[in-house]
Amino acid sequence: MKQMGELQIMFDDFFTRALIAGIGIAIIAGPLGCLVIWRRLSYFGDTLSHSALLGVTLAYSFSFNITFSVFIISAVVALLLINLQKRTKLAGDSLLGLLAHSTLAIGLVLIGFLTSIRFDLMGLLFGDILAVDVEDITIVYLGGAAILLILYFIWKSLFSATVNYDLSAAEGMRPEVSNFIFTLLLAGVIALSIKMIGALLITGLLLIPAAIARNISSSPRQMVIIATLAGVISVIAGLFVSLEINTSSGPSIIVVALLLFIISLIPLEIKGQLQK
What we know:
This protein is 85% helix and 0% strand. By secondary structure, the protein is mostly helical. The longest helix is centred in the middle third of the chain and has 30 residues, at 134-163.
């Protein structure tokens, strides 16, 4: 009973809840971010995060669960991209730009009609991790466990397709299926983190820790581990910095990640100097 009481006190503290939720998001984002870097899909992640605002708007309009609504909209955008690639001659980056800005604009237009509903637009754009509750933490960890479990089972096919798509297909790994599942997993992590990091900063938490790991790792497995650790450190340090100097939590996390990325460049610079 005493332990249960201590646990309850811990979850009653908003900062502790923010730390627990943020660490969960960082653990999920680590391996996914590495795949985004390897497959050069950073703009695709940005497109899904922009579409998240439309999902949030629809959730408020029809009283849906925000996480569920964002996931559905992000998944629809991913499917729409695949369909448009088959129907038009436009390059992939052009289609991503079209979908990213269109969904963002539609979401902002719809927000203008929701005059009877009060919500924090800045919180949606940049996140408010300090406002998470126990239900949010539960969703993050249960949803995150499902995402990582699925990723574990399709990892070999995804990695093989990243190295050589044709060879992966020839070996019967069905890379098109794993690619489709991967887009849904990206939609899932964006849906889980929209409330905490915000629509405009989610991609940063996916990309920057993975970029840090890319600079200092020597193998794919090492890169995944370092990316996850870098994300966790960014969340913890960013939250403490935001508490200390009274800045927004989501942007503070991304700024800390950026500083870690700059630090990760030092070994590359030293190595370059030694090779001269």
